[in-house]
What we know:
The structure holds 2 protein chains of 2 kinds. By secondary structure, chain A is mostly helical. Chain A has helices at residues 4-23, 27-52, 58-88. In chain A, helix 1 (4-23) runs antiparallel to helix 2 (27-52) and helix 2 (27-52) runs antiparallel to helix 3. Chain B is built from 6 helices and no strands. In chain B, helix 1 packs antiparallel against helix 2 and helix 2 packs antiparallel against helix 3.
Amino acid sequence: xxxVYPVVVSALLFSIGVYGVLARRNAILVLMSVELMLNAVNxxxxxxxxxxxxxxxxxxxxxxxxxVIAAAEVGLGLAIVLAVFRTRRTVDVDRLRAxxxxxxxxxxxxxxxxxxx
Amino acid sequence: MTSQAPGLWPPxxxxxxxxxxxxxxxxxxxLVVTTRQLVHAALWLVVCFGALAGGYxxxxxxxxxxxxxxxxxxxxxxxxxxxxxxxxxxxxxxxxLDSGNRWAAALVALATAGVLVTVVVTGFRTAYAPLRPGQxxxxxxxxxxFRTWVLPFEALSVLLLAALVGAIVLSRTDIRGRE
Lengths: 117, 179
């Protein structure tokens, strides 16, 4: 197996994930794109483990660890998304602007209760 | 690692299989980030993860392939579907799934793909590894997990416990912070 093939597939998957994270509006779709990026990294780890012939199997063991961390991450991420949905009734990431920098110009359309203290 | 690597063309049998699976994975990943239906995005994610599991099998990482099927296809996608269901997402096609900066995002993604593909192709054009079956079997992987990597393994179990507790605390509504 030439190493170029898995590594190029993984690079393409990673950039597709980057596009999804930047372009998607729904928070759950952003989480899916993050999963795509993590999978690209996993493919890289497995390919380099095979290439190096690692006796300790560092690449494949790290792949298992990344899969476990991804499961924990998606569980917590979905809990946060559900908490946001409960309070704001929306999961669109570009409409959640409570932590955005306050624009100095007077903005009468800004909803109240969004800035803490 | 070997010096007498065969040429890049024609690809051998496992390489053809891997390239087909990689094409399926990349195509379904593109559909995940471009489809207009939320549920279809989750289902295309299943196709992408399945194709990647097949790729792991071709790369002789059997145990990782089954873990991928179990955890990603079995658990993560089901969690995402639950999230879609609980946020009352529209089932049919919806227009507002992409934000306004999708052209900038496409530009950034294309630049990322260009840089990464150029770097890895120039770096690993001649790298070749013969595939030996049995390298990633459950036995050898389990031996190395429980001999060499046992400390990070235990740390990960603590991390999973913390994530579990955190998810429970975040999703319960009757737990309030101190006044």
